[in-house]
Amino acid sequence: MGQYHDIDDILAEEELVPAVFLEAVNGVGLFESNDTNRVEPRSKVELPFWLASELHLRHATSVTIPPCFGKKTQEEIGADGADVDLRSRCSYFYELGCKIVQLINEKTIGSLLLVAFQTRYKEVLIKAHTSASALAPKYLSLLTKEETKLYEAAKSSTEAFKTWRMGGPRFQKASVLGRKRKPIGE
User: Fold this and answer.
1) What is the pLDDT of residues 118-140, one digit of tens each?
2) Distance separating alpha carbons of residues 69 and 75, to the nearest angstrom
3) What is the C-alpha to C-alpha distance for residues 116 and 150, in angstroms, rounded to an integer?
4) Do residues 123 and 176 lie in contact, with contact meaning Cβ atoms separated by under 8 Å?
5) Which helix (H) or strand (E) holds 56?
6) Rounded to 5 degrees, what angle do the CA atoms 126, 130, 136 make?
């Protein structure tokens, strides 16, 4: 479980992951057509990550690698990671990837996350510092939530630097410095 009050963490844990039930389970209500609400052993289902991880820790399910981290994605990121549409595969690609790695100890996902971030990080910063506003919506539609935050931070940093360089306030007085202390004896 991640940060309790972080909406992005909550939404990342809502992403569906494939799981296989290892034993029969009653009362889970996964299938609407099933009147008994019973899941048989070796049933393959997609569960939200938060539920799949809890069931995995209790040895009731086996979590498998989600398709967004599969061979196709690995090959595309290996070929040209900067132009892969990760948002359509998983909006929280990096955050879910880190959680999956901790859960199932799949080493290929960790290296995939590293390669993807290294190749895309540079491109995100270049686009944030140089691209025109008209190009931004098309490019932003390819980025995950984490990369979008990074892009927006870099964009605002660039704008603040330009404002400063073009004659903005050179020094800013800290609000703490404006207050005076009361003498000790009074």
Assistant:
1) 988 988 888 888 866 666 777 78
2) 10
3) 14
4) no
5) helix 49-57
6) 90
Predicted confidence band at 39 (pLDDT cuts at 50, 70, 90)? Answer: confident
Name the one residue in this structure whose structure tokens are 């972080």. Answer: 6
Tokens standing for 159? 């704008």
Which residue has better confidence, 77 or 177? 77
Average pLDDT, the chain: 83
CA 51 to chain centroid, in Å, comes to: 18
Q: What share of the chain is helix, strand, coil (3-state, %, to 5)?
A: 55, 10, 35
CA distance 90 to 147: 12
* Type of residue numbered 60: A
